[in-house]
Recover the amino acids of this structure.
C-alpha cells in the first residue's frame, strides 16, 4: 500500500513538473516574453533642395517606461542634419543634445534624449531630426540607418535605450528610408505663400491658407513658414514650425496681434507688409 501511495505521489509531482515546464516554454515563446523595444526612425518623402523631418521613437508592446536613449544616425553625403528638437510629448526635464558629424563620405548626427527624474512611455515620438536635402541630390530612395555597435567595449554602443534607473535595455532597431523626388518650380500650387512640400510635411495636405495659428503661439502659419525657411530660431533656440510653440517677441516675422503685443520698438514687432510681401510677389508674378 505504501509503495502504491509513493508511486501516486511521484506521479502527481512528475505531472506537475512537466506541466510547469510546458507552461514556462509556452510563456517564453509567447510574443510578450519575446518582445523587446524597437528604436525606430520614420520614413518620408522630400523634393531635391527640400527640408524634411524624421521622427525618432520607441515601439514596444510590453508597456514599459524608459528614461532615455542615445543614437548615431547615418545619412547619405547629400543630406545634411540641421538639428534635433524634442517632441511636445516630452517635458522640460528632458535633456536633448545633438552633434552633427561628417566622415568617410557620409553625414550623420549623434543625439541623446535623457531625464534623471522622469520617464516616457512606449510608442512615443521623442525627437524630430530636421534634415536638408541638397539641390543636386539624386532622385532615389536613400537608407537612413542607425550606426552599428562600437567594437571597443569601453565605449558606449552607438544606439541604446535606458530604463528610468539608467540601466541599458535590450532592444532592436528599425531603419528608415528617405525618398528624394525631383524638384519642381511650382512649389506653391495653391498660391498661399507657403511651399507645398512644407505644408505636406506639417499638415499632411494643402488645406491651410497661412492665416491660421495652428499651434496658438502668436505666429500665423505663414509667419512660421517664413521663419522656418530662413533658418531662424526663437529666443529659446527652437526652430519655427506650426506644430511647436515658439517664444514670443523672437526675431523674424511675428504676429502683430500677439497677446500681449510686442513691446514698442521691439525688433521682433511685425510688419504686415513684410509678412504679406512673399504672397503678394507670388500673385503678381503669375
Amino acid at each position: 500500500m505504501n509503495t502504491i501511495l509513493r508511486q501516486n505521489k511521484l506521479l502527481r509531482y512528475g505531472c506537475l513538473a512537466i506541466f510547469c515546464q510546458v507552461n514556462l516554454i509556452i510563456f517564453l515563446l509567447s510574443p510578450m516574453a519575446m518582445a523587446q523595444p524597437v528604436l525606430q526612425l520614420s520614413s518620408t518623402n522630400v523634393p531635391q533642395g527640400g527640408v524634411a523631418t524624421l521622427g525618432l521613437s520607441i515601439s514596444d508592446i510590453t508597456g514599459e517606461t524608459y528614461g532615455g536613449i542615445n543614437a548615431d544616425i547615418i545619412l547619405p553625403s547629400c543630406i545634411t542634419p540641421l538639428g534635433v528638437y524634442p517632441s511636445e510629448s516630452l517635458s522640460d526635464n528632458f535633456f536633448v543634445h545633438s552633434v552633427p558629424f561628417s566622415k568617410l563620405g557620409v553625414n550623420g548626427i549623434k543625439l541623446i534624449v535623457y531625464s534623471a527624474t522622469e520617464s516616457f512611455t512606449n510608442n512615443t515620438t521623442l525627437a524630430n531630426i530636421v534634415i536638408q536635402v541638397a539641390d543636386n541630390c539624386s532622385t532615389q530612395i536613400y537608407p537612413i540607418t542607425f550606426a552599428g555597435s562600437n567594437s571597443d567595449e569601453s565605449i558606449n554602443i552607438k544606439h541604446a535605450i535606458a530604463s528610468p534607473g539608467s540601466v541599458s535595455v535590450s532592444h532592436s532597431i528599425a531603419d528608415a528610408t528617405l525618398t528624394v523626388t525631383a524638384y519642381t518650380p511650382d512649389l506653391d500650387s495653391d498660391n498661399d505663400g507657403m511651399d507645398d512640400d512644407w505644408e505636406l510635411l506639417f499638415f499632411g495636405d494643402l488645406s491651410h491658407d497661412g492665416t491660421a495659428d495652428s499651434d496658438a503661439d502668436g505666429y500665423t502659419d505663414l509667419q512660421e513658414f517664413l521663419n522656418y525657411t530662413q533658418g531662424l530660431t526663437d529666443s529659446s533656440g527652437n526652430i519655427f514650425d506650426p506644430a511647436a510653440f515658439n517664444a514670443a517677441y523672437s526675431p523674424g516675422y511675428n504676429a502683430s496681434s500677439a497677446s500681449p503685443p510686442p513691446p514698442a520698438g521691439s525688433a521682433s514687432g511685425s510688419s504686415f507688409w513684410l509678412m504679406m510681401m512673399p504672397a503678394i510677389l507670388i500673385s503678381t508674378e503669375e
Notes: Confidence is low (pLDDT under 50) at residues 15-20, 22-33, 150-156, 257-286.
